[in-house]
Amino acid sequence: MSSATPSAPTSAPALLTTRSEEIFAAAQTLMPGGVSSPVRAFKSVGGQPIVFDRVKGAYAWDVDGNRYIDYVGSWGPAICGHSHPEVIAALHEALEKGTSFGAPCVLENELAELVIAAVPSVEMVRFVNSGTEACMAVLRLMRAFTGREKVIKFEGCYHGHADMFLVKAGSGVATLGLPDSPGVPRAVTASTLTAPYNCLESVKELFANNPGEIAGVILEPVVGNAGFITPEPGFLEGLRELTKENGALLVFDEVMTGFRIAYGGAQARFGVTPDLTTMGKVIGGGLPVGAYGGRADIMAMVAPAGPMYQAGTLSGNPLAMTAGIKTLQLLKQPGSYERLETITRRLSDGIRAAAAEAGVPLCGGSISAMFGFFLCEGPVHNFEQAKAADTARFGRLHRGMLEHGVYLAPSAFEAGFTSLAHSDADIDATIAAFRDVFLSLA
Ligand code: HOZ
After folding, report:
1. Considering the domain 18-83+337-441, what is its CATH architecture?
2. pTM to 2 decimals?
3. What letter does residue 74 receive in the DSSP assignment?
4. Which residues are catalytic?
């Protein structure tokens, strides 16, 4: 960081996005809001979404030929970099054998073995097609196993778009500032209890007020869907104790953090083992995969081993399994997580220094390949505090970064993701871009 007087920002060339605009205009007549998932519509940051043409390594190119250093990584899966040559080669080979079996295949065993060996809580696993699906199923399993209906979730945590989780949810719900969602029956959410993240006292109170009724507690062990919020020392451990004391299950939603903040996920990183875990994103290597797993005695409840029904035509799909296996094999190579930790910390430190130089209030941090910041003094320990950050300024920052060739999540309430493909030069260029944009915002 330079000292006394910050130098003037250098201007970025104008961003031409004519083709993106044409395509998005047509998309809006064809799909609600022009998108297949709300956050990507840029509603909270203003302007029009960039329509992607292709992705490779650390970069995305739009349909107008602009290149961006990408810190969304398809919202998490691209931890080895987009379209890694070994993943693509494995997929070509798998394609020749067919795109869907709807029958057991050995690839499921291979990915299951990798997941079980890596994730401390997982003794058995069931593959599904998305993180939402995994969380839906795990909720049913929590209830089936305990015979209880109520579940505690945390404000700002996002566990997919199933009815019972759309209570004080993060991600798109937070991004669009929705109160929750119409269409969700009150009766369904009546058994979803909420507490502020990082507040053990509230969880204790909920257990005390609902004796013998709470099936379990589900959380993002590191929040990525309300911006990036880390657990305070003792929070995860406290939840582990409280759930045990009350005969309830502890579930880590590791859809974002799994294989990202450590090979064994947040539970390996923090040394707290939940009863059940949900996963997605990285374990699909860019194809649609989710999974839930945990203690063998609990997983024995899942049909056909047990009575809790859950099924899926495309679950265990050979292409998705192939991309997942190859991605985990790449991640297992020595040095992967050290590299991810180093570049992401350097990026996060650089962002903070650039903001300080420009006099822009900002707090934030990183763990391994996950980072985030809020445009406020901070610190931010929960969703309430996250919501106090300057989202209008974030919109201007987002636009400025695009003009400087950096693609950030189009929401102040989503974590950022790095990959093994991000080079030191990419990180330097990104920090320089932040510096320029912060100076222009100050
Ligand atoms: N749930 C993802 C963000 N946390 C999905 C966003 C998208 O694909 O638009």
Report:
1. Alpha-Beta Complex (3.90)
2. 0.95
3. G
4. 158, 253, 281
